[in-house]
Amino acid sequence: MTAMQDVCADLAAEGAGLARLVAGLPPGQWSAPTPAAGWTVRHQVAHLAQVSRLVGLAVRDPAAFEAETAAVREDAAAGTAAALAERLAEPVPELLRHWARWRAGAAEGLAAVPRRQPVPWLADPLPASVLAAAALTELFAHGHDIHEALGVPYAFTDRIGHVAFLGTRARDLAYRARGLEPPAEPFRFELTAPSGVRWAFGPEDADQRVSGPAADFCLLVTRRRHRDDLALTAVGPVADHWLGIARTHLVAPGGGPGRIGQYRV
User: Fold this and answer.
1) pTM (2 decimals)?
2) Which of 49, 91, 226, 234 could connect to 240 by a Cys-Cys bridge, CB 3.0–4.6 Å?
């Protein structure tokens, strides 16, 4: 459902929208707490700037990417904290300038790469289109936190289709994160986009099925809401169990898998 150029264009649009939201914020709002424990609006933007920087490096200069991320691969918590601290030390205007430049570089760089070409990433190389979807998922998740901190409702668009795609592709990650063996049987996902379009992933005849609004699905897999607060339906015991553990990333902001905002674990 997602051509490579589409995901890169959507990545650029999602980043530009969030940048407009935070542009011109008074100092007090930059220090506003977000649903991620210990993270302010400034932490969230600093994190997103660093992600954009790394995506751009991975595409343009894999050797520099490997050097930059060596500390993260050696000690994920300490390496991530050090990189975040470097971004947080920048004055807000400089942070915003860097973020704008790195966002553009990431989207343009990914658009120039064949969609199935592997690009180095923190754990394993990812196809360029999947890395673009992962970068957009970061924007969606952390952008949602920023919207909540500022009291501005998040406007869902069909750009979340890339987040939904990543959520279905990362199905087995939820099991590995808990030391469980992923099920062999496939899932069918049937989701309704904000526009009303129906998105489907997985074989039509799968016994294990998940359905509902794509917006709710994206909030679930990015761990921004608990399944009990969402209009998602599971058919089959395996799919029902998965709704309780779904995720797109191994760890939450701050380095741990604990609660994010209203997400009850």
Assistant:
1) 0.92
2) 234
